[in-house]
Amino acid sequence: MAATPVRERTRHEIVRQAMRLFQDRGYNATSLQDIASAAGCSKATVLYHFNGKPAVLAAVLEPAAADLAGLMDSAAGLSQAEAQEFAIQQFTDLAVRYRGVIDVLQDILPVIDEMPEIAQLVADGIRLTDLLAGSDDPLERDLAKFAINGLLGECRHPGERTDDELRNLCDIALRRILRSA
Amino acid sequence: MAATPVRERTRHEIVRQAMRLFQDRGYNATSLQDIASAAGCSKATVLYHFNGKPAVLAAVLEPAAADLAGLMDSAAGLSQAEAQEFAIQQFTDLAVRYRGVIDVLQDILPVIDEMPEIAQLVADGIRLTDLLAGSDDPLERDLAKFAINGLLGECRHPGERTDDELRNLCDIALRRILRSA
DNA sequence: TTGAAAACTGGCCGATCGGTCAGGAAGGAT
DNA sequence: ATCCTTCCTGACCGATCGGCCAGTTTTCAA
């Protein structure tokens, strides 16, 4: 088969279990041993495939980071008003699609600046906030940050809401707080 | 002097330094040794005055918890509409007054249910959410939770905003999202 | 001044953490 | 079957954590 399937299979299982555990207990409360046990391998194997615990986190966040980066590219040539509407729609969609992953971000925030592995994701997130603001007014920018914080918190406790319910809630909340409906 | 001033003096210094460190680095990233060093005593002394690390956290949160509890008492006999307006004003005020303490709560959230020491604070916080909703409509209740999450996040990074700026931002954001202005 | 209570401390404990390393097992091309 | 690469592991390391305890110092009322 293409390249080495065994390598990818193990890596994928590690990432899958890490995502599940990060969601359940948070990043800090999940040890490499926890991930290894859940993935059916040894802790040394996890560290063979990933260069440290932050690298595992980066792998977990990678699909969301890639989608967000693509989203920001698409918004490049838009006007401020267009970009805001685009951001509301696409970010709501992104939040729903990666609701579990977003949940993981919660207890990384205090040390997120010390994680070069996800610096691009953070940078894109900040740019998205600017788009959401739809204005250079400091108040509107703060409100956009307020909205994102609310949305991040709302993605916690997955399973309490269906995807459609979450999508609807996010859309309403963003439009109320951003005054663009 | 009244009772034992030496005891209270040490306890107070420990709590003061713990609050500062919890704000700066977060609860989990702050060790008992860090607190002890900052307070100018030994780790054993911290554990002599407080029955474990969660007890230190509870002491740090205590003033805010007491004010919140009093606030909930005051709202007892109000109508739903009155209670909502009351909640918006008082919670904004509370958030500003204890902005540092609220910041501390952030990285406790994943395990907040396993901390009996602050169960009352959590319970009052949930009741406050109900008041803010101003309605039994599930959507409005979710939006209230959304607003609280946004406000919690906004209290992060103290010092970037003055108290008045924060108060104004919270008031505007709450009224926009709760549709009660 | 004295002696008991309160306040405090150094040293130690078991557990757990992320991470390293030498070497064994598995797998595929020849 | 051979051999080299890839994959994987048990054992171990140093550091750090929260917490405990025996014993010392300080405080203060009698």
From TrEMBL, chains A, B:
PROSITE patterns: HTH_TETR_2. Keywords: DNA-binding, Transcription, Transcription regulation. GO terms for molecular function: DNA-binding transcription factor activity; transcription cis-regulatory region binding. InterPro entries: Homeodomain-like_sf, HTH-type_TetR-like_transc_reg, HTH_TetR. It comes from the Bacteria. Residues 31-50 bind DNA. Residues 8-68 form the HTH tetR-type domain. It holds the Pfam family TetR_N. PANTHER family: HTH-TYPE TRANSCRIPTIONAL REGULATOR BETI, HTH-TYPE TRANSCRIPTIONAL REGULATOR RUTR. This is TetR/AcrR family transcriptional regulator.
